[in-house]
């Protein structure tokens, strides 16, 4: 049965964290000597109980912001007060970032998630305003007393997310907490309690008052969690996805008994899982770009679905349409242009391999595949492989072997021709000298001709490239 008391092993985990981070006791003594309370709160406490690593530290204190600055001024290596309005002072001690916040008992306007900040007097009231019970535990400093007023330990034992107050009140105060529920499902492997799911479903439209940037940040954290599919399912089932990523639930296409096709929604989630399993191919993981591209690679299908005679369904050009939809949605969520370009490129190219057939591509076609993928080639390898979700074992094996062959051909050509740095055989200065022209659009036109020639014929000598360029220019004139 769930317990509300620390087991010996969990007490040992907390003690180990305190022992490994001696600055915590130092900080606690500073506040005690000044006549104030200080406690570690939120995620760091939860992670200590779970035995998860962490480097960011959140604290709650009876001291007001001015007093926090006075107490820690000579102790901290750096200090910033951008959160002063909300009672928060930021510090850096060694390699650790710390945020110390005065006890609060906020009041919220229903039309905004920005609270009217009221400073509180006790840690009890402060903990009651936190998002989930597993994040409403505290460790007093320097005594190391463990505080669990809302059953956070029991919820950890049951791997459940509940709110300290009613979920309706919690989510009304801050609708972003609904997104956090899905994020913690992904990160921690917990499940949301039935009353939490019910409130999320009833209050999904409240998400509209949250800024796109905050929603995006929670989505990113969800996607790079250990089980993003579980978190995404919760977003879709509660209607939250329809508010912030409507293209995802749109993949649940209405089925027709006469026109059968793969379940696009379930297929997309499977592709995401299979791409995650291949992330070891990349330099670092988790990789947000490949996870976004895997999840969104088929979002063009609902707009391109067509029924044809014989009971089949087509999705012609869903790759191109999908890339445009990706750009539109990611811009709405305030993603950077660089990230948008990377994800959209992968979505646009995710079908390109299927033109490879049984290996009939010429070397020229392989070069163009590499050129078009550019710096996304390794991610395209992963997405293309993950996109195979057929239950036909023979077909799956054939696709795998065919892609193995394509990768081998790319490797051979790359070694022989430096595909990663593919350039025309003549540079801009040489083009202008040979043709007797100055800078301008004509140089770009000649450059593109030489690049296409390089794709078709591979590396040429300077003499051969010069001859080809002169012939092209004469024909153009």
UniProtKB/TrEMBL annotation:
One protein family per Pfam: PolyA_pol_RNAbd
Domain of life: Bacteria
UniProt keyword tRNA processing, yes or no: yes
Single GO term (MF): poly(A) RNA polymerase activity
Signal peptide: none
Domain HD: 264-422
Keyword vocabulary terms for this entry: Magnesium, Metal-binding, Nucleotide-binding, Nucleotidyltransferase, Transferase, tRNA processing
EC number(s) stated in the UniProt entry for this protein: 2.7.7.19
Keyword Thylakoid: no
Cofactor dependency: Mg(2+)
PANTHER family assigned to the protein according to its UniProt record, in alphabetical order: CCA TRNA NUCLEOTIDYLTRANSFERASE 1, MITOCHONDRIAL (PTHR46173)
Protein name as it appears in the record: Poly(A) polymerase
Organism encoding this protein: Aeromicrobium panaciterrae
Upper taxonomic lineage: Bacteria, Bacillati, Actinomycetota, Actinomycetes, Propionibacteriales
């Amino acid at each position: 049965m769930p317990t509300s008391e620390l087991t010996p092993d969990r007490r040992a985990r907390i003690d180990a964290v305190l022992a490994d981070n001696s600055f915590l006791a130092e900080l606690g003594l500073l506040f005690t000597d000044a006549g104030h309370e200080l406690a570690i709160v939120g995620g760091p406490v939860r992670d200590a109980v779970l035995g998860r690593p962490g480097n960011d530290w959140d604290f709650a204190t009876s001291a007001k912001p001015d007093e926090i600055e006075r107490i820690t001024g000579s102790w901290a290596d750096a200090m910033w007060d951008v959160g002063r309005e909300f009672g928060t002072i930021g510090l850096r001690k060694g390699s650790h970032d710390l945020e110390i916040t005065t006890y609060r008992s906020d009041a919220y306007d229903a039309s905004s998630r920005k609270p009217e900040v009221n400073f509180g007097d006790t840690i009890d009231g402060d903990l009651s305003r936190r998002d989930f019970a597993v994040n409403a535990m505290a460790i007093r400093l320097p005594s190391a007393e463990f505080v669990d007023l809302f059953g956070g330990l029991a919820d950890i034992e049951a791997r459940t997310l509940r709110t300290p107050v009613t979920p309706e009140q919690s989510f009304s105060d801050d609708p972003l907490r609904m997104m956090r529920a899905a994020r913690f499902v992904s990160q921690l492997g917990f499940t949301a309690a039935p009353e939490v799911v019910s409130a999320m479903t009833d209050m999904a439209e409240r998400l509209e008052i949250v800024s796109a940037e905050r929603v995006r940040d929670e989505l990113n954290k969800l996607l790079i969690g250990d089980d993003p599919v579980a978190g995404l399912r919760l977003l879709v089932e509660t209607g939250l996805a329809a508010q912030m990523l409507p293209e995802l639930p749109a993949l649940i296409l209405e089925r027709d008994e006469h026109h059968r096709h793969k379940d696009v929604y379930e297929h997309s989630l499977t592709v995401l899982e299979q791409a995650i399993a291949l992330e070891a191919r990349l330099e670092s993981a988790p990789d947000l770009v490949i996870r976004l591209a895997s999840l969104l690679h088929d979002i063009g299908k609902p707009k391109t679905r067509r029924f044809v005679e014989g009971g089949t369904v087509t999705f012609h050009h869903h790759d191109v349409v999908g890339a445009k939809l990706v750009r539109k949605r990611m811009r709405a969520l305030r993603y950077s242009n660089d990230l948008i370009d990377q994800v959209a490129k992968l979505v646009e190219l995710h079908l390109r391999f299927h033109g490879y057939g049984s290996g009939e591509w010429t070397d020229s076609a392989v070069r163009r595949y590499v050129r078009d993928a550019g710096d996304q080639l390794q991610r395209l390898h992963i997405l293309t492989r993950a996109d195979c979700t057929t239950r036909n074992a023979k077909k799956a094996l054939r696709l795998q072997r065919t892609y193995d062959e394509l990768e081998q051909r790319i490797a051979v050509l790359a070694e022989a021709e430096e595909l990663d740095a593919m350039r025309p055989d003549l540079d801009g200065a040489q083009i202008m000298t040979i043709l007797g022209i100055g800078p301008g659009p004509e140089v770009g036109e000649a450059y593109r001709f030489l690049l296409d020639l390089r794709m078709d014929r591979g590396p040429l000598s300077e003499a051969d490239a010069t001859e080809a360029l002169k012939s092209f220019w004469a024909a153009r004139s």
